[in-house]
Design a protein that fits this description.
The protein is mainly alpha-helical and 302 residues long. α1 runs parallel beside α3. The two termini are 14 Å apart.
């Protein structure tokens, strides 16, 4: 069995190699700006590739293969988005939408900016329409983090918002299901700015997660729900004292296929899947694996 450091490095590098080698599948359709095109399905894979790439690049020291791959993926996504023009056009067409900004907010970290988009966003964020648009609390946390990243105000106190989230309610641990699991992981990602500010996670939430994450991770590993297990392990890596040990990470890493992909849910993998379906089954969980492995490569875990 390889040393945990080597196993985590291999997990992350192979996941990004898979994504880079299949970058054609992440490309936007030529008619992405057509109002009849479902934006979520068209943008989601590319947006998640960009987000993962920026976070992984931030976490890795210069000179490593994983950092180079992450940089390549991020620049590919930026070019696909017309260097911000696509997001600008989407925001102009749908002024109360938050997703163009949520996608864009990761790129300035790499020095990739679109000033007209930022100027438009600053104006829209001050409108009554923007603040009147209803959003679930987890989304509100995400949008507030985006505004803070871009220096666009006013930004609400996260403590005001987090109390209305599933995680903020400190529910009975047996109440956690798949939907709650994804909500709580994203609450943590938003509060910590996707790993850049682990101190953003309030102490009482960190204590709650430390108590129950081991059981939740075990549940989803047993279910072979690799996507949610990976997100929960990423959350664990952001705790002041991560609870997942080398054996847990090895079990998770064993889900990775020879080609570097990780299926979202083991039972979804079938031999009759078309290439498009196979990509849909694997791409998100594979990006999660790269993200989680990058966050977990710290002394407390390895």
């Amino acid at each position: 069995m390889p040393h945990p450091v080597d196993a985590l490095d291999a997990l992350g590098v192979r996941a990004l190699e898979w994504a880079w080698s299949r970058r054609e599948w992440f490309r936007l359709p030529g008619d992405v700006l057509d109002p009849s095109v479902p934006v979520d399905g068209a943008l989601k894979p590319l947006a998640e590739l960009a987000q993962t790439a920026v976070v992984v690049r931030r976490s890795d020291p210069p000179g490593g293969r994983r950092r180079r791959l992450a940089g390549d993926c991020a620049r590919f996504a930026w070019d696909e988005l017309g260097r911000g023009d696509v997001l600008f056009d989407l925001l102009r067409a749908e002024p109360t939408a938050t997703y163009p900004l949520e996608i864009y907010a990761f790129f300035p970290e790499l020095g990739l900016r679109h000033r007209p988009l930022e100027e438009l966003a600053a104006f829209l964020a001050g409108t009554r329409a923007w603040h009147a648009t209803e959003q679930v609390p987890t989304r509100v946390l995400g949008v507030q983090r985006v505004l803070a990243r871009l220096g666009i105000g006013p930004v609400r106190d996260p403590a005001e918002v987090v109390g209305r989230t599933w995680l903020g309610g400190l529910p009975e641990p047996w109440a956690m299901d798949v939907h709650a699991g994804y909500a709580l992981t994203h609450d943590v990602f938003h509060l910590t700015d996707w790993g850049a500010r682990p101190e953003g996670l309030p102490a009482h939430l960190a204590d709650y997660l430390a108590a129950w994450l081991p059981a939740w991770v075990e549940t989803w590993l047993e279910e072979r729900h690799w996507d949610l297990a990976g997100e929960l392990l990423a959350v664990d890596a952001l705790l002041p004292r991560p609870t997942a040990g080398p054996d847990t990470w090895r079990r998770y890493a064993a889900a990775q296929r020879e080609d570097g992909s990780v299926p979202a849910v083991e039972s979804w993998v079938r031999p009759d899947l078309t290439p498009v379906e196979a990509f849909g089954v694997c791409y998100h969980a594979t990006l999660v694996a790269a993200f989680a492995a990058s966050l977990a490569r710290v002394p407390e875990v390895v």
